[in-house]
Recover the amino acids of this structure.
């Protein structure tokens, strides 16, 4: 029994397979599909079966190690097809594919799942369950189209498989459409290539597109010769000869019909039998009656169960009618003519029944395609709505994040501004405090100088200055230290920088206070001694004491709960 790829051990074959890129691995596996051996070998021993499953299990294990999920599930599908074919080959109805549905529904690889659907549909067709077969095939086709043919190495197999089902129902336009698509991709085998091109040529012949049919038959002949496939040289030669015969070119058709008759005998005996009848028809046209009779007899002598499939009976009656007319035996010609008409009536009835069945199947198929299209449209719409919702959520999230970020930046900027403002305020406060301290210190120094000068004037010795000049200087200095209105405004400005809101709060709480009382409270806030305060205000210390006494009584009258010291501390 053949292996996956090459002769030799299973492991060696798997190692060879993994030397190819992933897509080529799949193509090679389908090229030498191990499940086909069930039919090709006709009979498997138990050891053969064990080896097949072991080989596929090894392939799955290596695919899993290589993290090639598609190859893993493809090997799993091939293992399923081996089990199915082992049952199907016995002639019993196989339920293997049906029973595997739950398992294959778990397959995460869409193309492998679609391959399973395709194989299931092909099997139902073989069992003449056409409606069910079409449903599975169309479902698979829909999936293949969504995945993209270019992403499926073995797509030719699926397209030609579905196209051939339409061929069986004489849906030639649909068949040709699938064949045209399939021919863009590589075939899995040379024999499949020859078979599908030959079938396409047959369709063109039936559609009376004889030029296209002739060209394709000639292509198959040339290709079959290059592949050393004599059977298909014979099959295509027979088709080309028949095409030429239909075009009224009997003499030109004969060489091809002779080749077709001879080379088709081994593998396509039914083709050889009907080709013998075409030879007889051509020979009758050329008045070679004896040779024609010889080939009629030869066709009858070819034993094959597939003569009916090749439309042998109708062709046989038509050729016999022509032969007996040619030989002048009109009685027998009439009998064969009647048989021909009866068979045509029978075929017409069968054909009409088949047309009705085909129409029903076609309607069901079209309905199913419509349902699939509707499902896909709903799915696409759901995906579109989902994407819109996701985009909306993303936009909202982005907007939220942006807003939060902007808010955070705003708070950072505000904190930075506040920090800068606080720093500047601290600097201004420090500067104002220094100026105020310098101002009060300057006042104190002036007061001390005045005291010294006043004390010097009271001494018995003569001072440097004249007696007349002394009082004048003292008076001048006294005027310098007394707070004028300009001095008061400068002092007030510096004071407000160090104690902001002092005067405003004081005025709001005690609007009845006089300017002198306000000045006394401001100097008291700075803790200036009474002696210095007296010099500054230009009064005696006794006046300062009395002014404080009167201010204290006034405050107690206005606010019984307020003391002078408490007021100064609170401002």
């Amino acid at each position: 029994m053949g292996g996956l790829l090459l002769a030799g051990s299973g492991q060696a074959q798997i190692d060879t397979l993994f030397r190819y890129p992933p897509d080529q691995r799949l193509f090679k596996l389908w090229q030498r599909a191990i499940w086909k051996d069930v039919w090709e070998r006709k009979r498997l021993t138990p050891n053969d079966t064990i080896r097949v499953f072991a080989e596929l299990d090894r392939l799955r294990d290596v695919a899993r190690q290589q993290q090639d999920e598609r190859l893993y599930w493809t090997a799993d599908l091939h293992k399923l097809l081996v089990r199915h074919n082992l049952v199907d080959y016995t002639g019993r109805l196989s339920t293997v594919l049906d029973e595997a549905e739950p398992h294959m529904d778990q397959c995460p690889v869409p193309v492998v799942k679609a391959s399973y659907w395709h194989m299931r549909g092909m099997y139902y067709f073989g069992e003449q369950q056409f409606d069910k077969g079409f449903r599975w095939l169309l479902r698979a086709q829909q999936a293949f189209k969504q995945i993209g043919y270019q992403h499926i190495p073995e797509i030719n197999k699926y397209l030609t498989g579905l196209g051939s089902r339409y061929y069986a129902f004489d849906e030639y336009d649909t068949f040709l459409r699938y064949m045209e698509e399939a021919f863009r991709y590589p075939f899995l085998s040379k024999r499949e290539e020859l078979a599908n091109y030959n079938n396409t040529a047959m369709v063109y012949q039936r559609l009376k597109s004889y030029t296209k049919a002739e060209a394709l038959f000639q292509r198959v002949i040339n290709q079959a010769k290059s592949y050393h496939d004599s059977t298909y040289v014979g099959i295509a030669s027979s088709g080309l000869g028949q095409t030429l015969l239909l075009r009224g070119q009997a003499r030109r058709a004969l060489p091809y019909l002779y080749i077709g008759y001879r080379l088709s005998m081994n593998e396509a005996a039914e083709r050889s039998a009907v080709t013998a009848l075409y030879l007889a028809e051509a020979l009758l046209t050329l008045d070679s009656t004896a040779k024609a009779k010889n080939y009629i007899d030869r066709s009858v002598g070819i034993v094959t169960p597939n003569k009916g499939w090749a439309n042998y009976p109708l062709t046989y009656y038509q050729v016999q009618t022509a032969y007996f007319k040619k030989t002048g035996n009109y009685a027998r010609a009439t009998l064969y003519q009647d048989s021909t008409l009866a068979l045509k009536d029978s075929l017409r009835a069968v054909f009409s029944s088949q047309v009705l069945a085909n129409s029903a199947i076609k309607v069901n198929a079209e309905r199913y395609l419509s349902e699939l299209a509707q499902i896909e449209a709903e799915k696409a719409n759901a995906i579109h709505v989902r994407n819109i919702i996701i985009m909306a959520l993303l936009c909202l999230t982005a907007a939220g994040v942006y807003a939060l970020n902007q808010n955070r930046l705003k708070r950072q900027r505000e904190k930075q501004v506040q920090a800068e403002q606080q720093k500047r305020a601290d600097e201004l406060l420090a500067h104002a405090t220094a100026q105020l301290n310098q101002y009060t210190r300057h006042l104190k120094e002036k007061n001390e100088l005045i005291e010294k000068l006043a004390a010097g004037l009271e001494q018995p010795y003569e001072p440097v200055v004249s007696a007349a000049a002394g009082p004048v200087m003292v008076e001048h200095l006294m005027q310098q230290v007394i707070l004028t209105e300009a001095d008061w405004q400068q002092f007030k400005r510096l004071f407000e920088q160090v104690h902001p809101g002092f005067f405003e709060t004081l005025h709001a709480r005690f609007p009845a206070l006089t300017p002198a009382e306000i000045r006394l409270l401001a100097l008291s806030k700075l803790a200036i001694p009474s002696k210095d305060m007296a010099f500054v205000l230009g009064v005696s210390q006794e006046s300062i004491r009395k002014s404080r006494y009167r201010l204290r009584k006034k405050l107690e009258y206005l606010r019984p709960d307020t003391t002078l010291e408490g007021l100064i501390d609170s401002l």
Q: What stands out?
A: Residues 1-9, 461-470, 472-482 have pLDDT under 50 and may be disordered. DSSP finds 26 helices and no strands in the chain.
